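Hi L.,

As promised, IclR family transcriptional regulator:
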Amino acid sequence: MTNDIKSAARVLDMLELFSTRCGGLTLSEVARGLDLPKSSTLGLLRTLHNRGYLVREDEDDTYRLNDIIRRDGFARHGRILRVAPPVMRALASEAGETVLLGMPDAPGLVRLIAKEASPSDIRYDIELPRKVPAYCTALGRVLLTRLDAAGVEAALDAVPRAPLTGSTRVDRAAVIDAVAAARETGFAVVEDEFAVGGTGVAAVIPLGPGQPLAALGLACISQRYRQDPARLQANLGAAIARIADAMVGQGNM
C-alpha cells in the first residue's frame, strides 16, 4: 500500500470512528482507537478540523464530528465547510470577535455549524452544536430575508417568541420590521436581544443555484461593536465575498 493510499485510509478510518461516537474524543482516545502514533493522529485531526469536518471543543480539548455532516452527510454542505473555516479564522483575527456560520434548520430555527472564537480574552462565545431561534438572532433574521412575507410569518409562528432578555423583540410586527430592515441593508444587527452584552451582525453568503443557504455572522461584545460598527460590517462583508468567490472556484474544480 502506498503512503498516499495509507493516508487516505487513515482519514476514512478516523471519520468512521467519529461517526460512531456522539460525544468528543481526545487525541489519546483517537490514537488508541486507530492504533496510530499521537504525532500522526494530531496531524490528521488538525487537517479534518481545518477543513470543517471536525469541531474542536476548547473546554475539554476534544474533537467531534461536525453536527451538520452527521445529520446531512457530506454532499450538501461539504464544500462550504471546506471553504469557510480559514476565512473565518482570518475574520476572527481581523475583527477581534467570534465568527459563526449558520444555516436554516427547522422552521424558525438556525443551526450553528461552525465557529471561530475571538482571540480576545473577553469575548462572546457559544457552544456548538446549537440551534438558536431566528426571531432574536442576527443569523436568523438575515436568513429570514430570503423568505417571502408568508414564509417569514410562518417561521416566526413556528417557535415560541420568549423574551430572552429585557431587550428581546417578541412582537411579530416588530420582528418583521427588523427583517425588512435587514433585507434593505443586507445586514441584520441584533443588540442585547439574545444575550445581555452581546451584539450579533450577520449577512447571507450569496451562493449560486443548488448551493445551501448560509449566513456568516460576528458575535460581538456590544460595547466593542458600538465603537466601530462600520469597520466590523466591512470586515464581515469582505469575508463573505471571499467565501462566495472560493465556492465558485470549488465548483469549477
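The longest strand covers residues 109-116.

Thanks again for sending the construct details.

K.
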